[in-house]
Write a structure and sequence with these properties.
single chain, alpha+beta, UbiD C-terminal domain-like, nine-stranded antiparallel β-sheet, 13 helices
Length: 468
């Protein structure tokens, strides 16, 4: 059976927080989802009878592992391997699917009747932040997916912002020809597909949905849209169909982004005209709250971690990379790399590899040895404090292209690209001396408290560790 959101929610069991009180999804879901420590389901939505809303599905490694069918320790390595050896996966066009239970076309397609929340105080309005956006290259016929923000401007109209990547290139090709671009939003997919929809590297001849099928080891089921020439996942909870008219621009924003700020990308933005909505009969609205420390960051950072793991492992022929971590609390702008350097300069080259990757997010890269737990910020800062000589181990690089939502860097271009920021990047080598300098490296061996290896203490030590 094809993977879907409902299978994942059922597999969560008691791990899913169920809120049975009546909740206004427009004005109250933002705070509840932002505060939820793990997956949450709102079952009674004021003004939206029959609907439910879920969020916070892949906030941590445990849930990411569940979505990808692996263990928490192996999320990055396993995903990195699958992304580059099992893709593209298979896909097939099916005549019907659950997303076609209810069809609302033309004037009946009213997006204001979907329980789309206001994410943050000060937002320009209700924002769809969980739709996997689907476009197609008019020349090659290859689709592309991404998750973007879309402002509800009326029953059949949204303004949206997207970075200058593959889907933007598709829209520009249609605009140059004076043609409306078909586009769809698929809401409520299995989280494994949501993770892969955020892959930003090259994928020649196939799209992120087919990449997801390969990673998840299944055949993707697609159905034709009702009003536009696109294929969408048959297992989606909701599909919004429409077109982007060429050359039309309207104000969009502000919107509270993953950075924790509302500034960054306000300005004239393209417009999406809704032509149809199809959905499951008892649809679950998949929300992705866009405040800090929610799903919003890991959905992007997990495929970025996997891509970087592969890229960095290839530096110098083969570099011993143990793990790559982009914590939600660094808003994707800082990358931790756990590695064992063999030679002088290897750690520095790894750090430069992070800062020159296909992703614009990383502006700070920190390398530590395998004796440092990169999931514990205390350990990372201990390594920075005790193993870094700033005059030797810190590299700053000026005048680099920076992520368009990083407001610490100035916007140098307000043209059709919307935002182009240029600023500095920094690399911090907090590793020990490399393996070939054994004497110097041994001086940085961490001390161990007396009795740490005593077999008689292991059970008690484990109990104490569990109390932290």
């Amino acid at each position: 059976m094809a993977l879907n959101l409902r299978d994942f929610l059922a597999a969560l069991g008691d791990d899913l927080i169920r809120v049975d009180e009546e909740i206004d999804p427009i004005t109250q879901a933002g705070a509840l989802c932002s505060a939820a420590p793990r997956p949450i389901m709102l079952s009674r939505l004021k003004g939206f009878p029959g609907w439910s809303l879920c969020d916070i599905l892949v906030k941590d490694r445990a849930r990411q592992a569940k979505a990808l069918g692996t263990s928490p320790r192996h999320v990055v390595r396993e995903l990195s391997d699958r992304m580059f050896t099992r893709v593209p996966g298979g896909s097939k066009l099916v005549p019907d699917g659950p997303c076609k239970d209810v069809k609302l076309l033309g004037a009946d397609a009213d997006i204001t009747k979907l329980p789309i929340p206001i994410h943050s105080e000060g937002d320009a309005g209700r924002y769809l932040g969980s739709g996997v956006t689907i476009t197609r290259d008019p020349d090659t016929g290859v689709r592309n997916e991404a998750i973007i923000r879309a402002l509800v401007r009326g029953p059949r109209k949204m303004g949206f912002w997207m970075a200058a990547r593959h889907n933007w290139a598709h829209l520009m090709k249609y605009q140059e020809r004076g043609l409306p671009a078909p586009m769809a939003f698929a809401i409520g997919l299995h989280p494994g597909y949501e993770i892969l929809a955020n892959f930003s590297g090259r994928h020649e001849g196939y799209d992120e949905l087919e990449m997801g099928a390969g990673v998840l080891g299944e055949t993707l089921e697609l159905v034709k849209c009702e009003t536009i020439d696109l294929e969408v996942p048959a297992q989606a909870e909701i599909v919004i169909e429409g077109v982007v008219p060429p050359g039309v621009r309207e104000p969009e924003g502000p919107f509270g982004e993953f950075t924790g700020y509302s500034k960054g990308a306000e300005g004239p933005a393209p417009v999406f005209e809704v032509t149809g909505i199809t959905r499951r009969r008892d649809a679950i609205y998949r929300h992705m709250q866009a405040t800090v420390f929610t799903d919003h960051q890991p959905l992007v950072s997990v495929p970025m971690e996997a891509s970087l793991y592969r890229r960095l492992s290839e530096i110098h022929g083969r570099t011993e990379i143990h793990d790559v971590y982009i914590p939600p609390w660094v808003t994707m702008f800082t990358v931790f790399v756990q590695m064992t350097p063999r030679w002088d300069g290897q750690a520095r080259d790894v750090l430069l590899g992070v800062l020159s990757s296909p992703y614009l997010h990383p502006k700070i890269a920190i390398a530590v040895d395998e004796d440092v737990n990169i999931y514990d910020p205390r350990e990372v800062f201990w390594a920075i404090s005790t193993r870094v000589n700033p005059e030797r181990d810190v590299i700053t690089i000026p005048h680099e292209r920076i992520h368009p939502l990083d407001i610490s860097a100035p916007n140098v271009d307000r043209s059709e690209v919307t935002v182009m920021r240029v600023g500095g990047k920094m690399a911090i080598d907090a590793t020990k001396p490399p393996l070939w300098r054994k004497k110097e490296r041994d001086e940085f061996t961490r001390i161990k408290p007396k009795g740490a290896d005593d077999p008689a203490l292991q059970a008690l030590l484990a109990r104490l560790a569990a109390m932290s």
